[in-house]
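ok so I'm stuck.
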Amino acid sequence: MALSEDSRETDSADSYASSLVQKPPVISQPEDNKEDEEDVEASRWVNWEDQILEETIPLVGFVRMVLHSGKYKNGEKLTPQHDKIILERLLPYHPEYETKIGYGVQSVMVGYHPDFKEKGCMFIVRKDGQLMDFSYWKCIKGLIRKKYPSGQIEM
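replied:
not stuck anymore, here's the structure
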């Protein structure tokens, strides 16, 4: 059976294509070093997304509970325990933190946003008596930017 030039080209292309999908050859290393190298390699890779979610999901859930559970009425101050969570774990990551807290924070309260009357909002009650609304989403984004390497997450 004589092969035409066309069929030789096809056979050549088919063998090239099949070589692309084959697994590359594995170069074996002595068994005693293999596990150590895998451990080192695994320790270099960090799943940032899992770490970020582990930290932020409970905070978001907490804020939503405060705003939407009915536990707090409009204008009501948070309990000291809830105050502490907001002031220590969330608010410091707001991009305008210094401006928001002024000369100090007396408490945190729940209210309605001044521009979006139907939306629940949290306010800082400053020691000078001023109320400052703040976005908990800006705090969450600030937390991610500050605590996790830049370039890992796009927001």
